[in-house]
Amino acid sequence: MLNIQNLHAGINGKKILKGINLSVNPGELHAIMGRNGSGKSTLANIITGRDSYEVMEGSVSFNGINLLDMSPEERALSGIFMSFQYPVVIPGVNNTYFLRAALNAKLKHNNLNELNAVDFMRLIREKLKLVKMDEKYLSRAVNDGFSGGEKKRNEILQMLTLEPTFSILDETDSGLDIDALKIVADGVNNFRTNKRSFLAITHYQRLLEYMKPDFIHVLIDGQIVKSGDKSLALELEEKGYSWLEK
Amino acid sequence: MNYLNQQFNSLLNYWPDEDKNIRSLRSNAFNQFNESGFPTKKWEEWQFTNFSKFKNNQFRLSSADDLPSIPKSIPGLIPNLDFIFIINGHYQSQLSSSPSGVRVSTHLEDYNTDQNIYTLESKQNPFQSLNVAMMNSGVSIHIDPNQIIEKPIQVIYLMTELSEPLMNHPRFHYHLGENSQATIIEHYIGISDQPYFVNSVSHATIGVNASFNHIRIQEETKSANHIASTHYQLDTDARLKSTHFSMGAELFRHDIKLSFNGNGGEAMLNGLCLTENQQHHDQNVTVDHQNDSCHSHQLFKYILGDKSSGVFNGKVIVRGKTKLTDADQSNKNLLLSPAALMNANPQLEIYSEDVKCSHGSTTGQIDPEALFYMRSRGLSQQKATELIIGGFAKEILEPILDENISKTMNQKIHQWLMGVQKDG
Description:
The complex is a heterodimer. Chain A is α/β, with parallel strands linked by helices. Chain A has a single domain, classed as 3-Layer(aba) Sandwich (Rossmann fold), CATH 3.40.50.300. In chain A, 35% of the residues lie in helices and 29% in strands. In chain A, strands 6-9-10-3-11-12 form a 6-stranded mixed β-sheet, sandwiched between helices. By secondary structure, chain B is an alpha/beta fold. In chain B, strands 1, 4, 5, 7, 8, 10, 12, 14, 16, 18 and 20 form an 11-stranded mixed β-sheet that branches. A 10-stranded mixed β-sheet of chain B has the order 3-2-6-9-11-13-15-17-19-21, with helices on one face. Chain A binds chain B through residues 48-51, 71-73, 75-77, 81-82, 84, 87-93, 97-99, 101-102, 105-106, 109, 141, 158, 162, and chain B through 367-370, 372-381, 383, 387-388, 390-395.
């Protein structure tokens, strides 16, 4: 599904990723672990197409199509989603209106009928229950006045509504208490199928206790230095990252 | 300024039978105007607005010959409201509705009772003097005491089918009696290829415990010059909610002055300026707290595209010995283009200790993080930009409770956004 080959990339001329190779197949959940500054978020930004990042070498393809030539919205419409580490507040833009506009953009792209306000409300109420969010959040501006945990749940709500095939969870566990973490993890777990793939980016193995990863990759200084199954996470928890550093 | 002398004389000849008192009022005002002339860059309150291009124009006062054929449908009409229609300065009473509890008179009919209003005109503002000298149109609207006027009244001031560059100096006087309530929309619209000049002055006197909702919409054609003053006077426990939209005219200057003449007044002054191309919008707001327990809230937003420019000068004065004043003033500006320019100068002058005051001004561009966030959800760059700008404008629309008005304004903002994005 997602295929990254020899990816070198960075920002402002500074190289951060130094030869990443990663292949994610349908149905798989991969976790990328590493310290701050190891390049985890850069990888997420390259996949989603954030403007300021540049690719110096290598390729990223999604279902066989070169992703790097596509705009962020084209990537989103073709099935890529990212739960942001820091969801953005958009004053004055109603959360419901925004989410319906996003869903309708996707439906239109797939030549499906767009949802009217009534049908959308029916759909969103179902999704809200899955992340245990109160309906009052629907009438607020996007992420405006949301606590850290509410913002993360709102990200998962968007994921459940837009139904992407490839989802990046960028530090989705950060800033969450244990109850919120469980809700978010349940949201993701119930969303997993053999067609949907995930890339979970995290510092800690805590999140991975709740979402079972198929593969774990350790990122140090822009390179994947070790890959393994979920036992690698436990090993990291015990020994830290330093034993993997050169 | 020779043409103004000529125009002034022709105005005197046009109305030879005018009341002697009005005559002398006009002459005094015109002398005052001639002494000062138009503002220059050296005048502190006017320093960011350039009148050199404006001064090269020669405008003729509108006369009876300038009454065009009446359009089949009146432009700008907001559905389900009462309305007053003035075309090229000529009041069309036969086309206007007359709601009960409301008396509408044409300009100067009430000269004797309104006399003190004219003396309020400021020597600092030559356009106000020019307006008094040449006042030639407008209406007075009287709301009787205890009358609750549910239906908003829309005053449409249309400039259209001009044969040459015309000017008008309208005056609008609003009198709200004790305990009365009304909503008035003062709506300027232009449909003309000719440049023209509207120099308007509005006065609202809001009686004891009365409530006035004033919405001003300036939608002149892009080649027009619109200079205006609005003066609000609030009596004891009076309430004002005012919203000022401006999107038209090449040159726009609006002086807004608010005085609390009694205790317990409450005022909201909001504004939204939308500018593009070479438009220049300058607003100068003074709120004078000279009595106790008065609250004022200001929020002025500008969205500036292309090479347009904006000026916001806001001043809150809290006089000595006043108690329990609560005043805030906020100015927020969004620049859509690197060539757009904003000058903001919020000021507080506080001579009392018992106050709660705040002020601030921010100017920025569209948040690239917000843009990326929305695009990462599948919205096009255009749609995302539109939503962000619309969200920025929304704060001004929200206090407008009448659905017909807020819907109309929402559509106008949306249309403007589509236009400014297409050009960009």
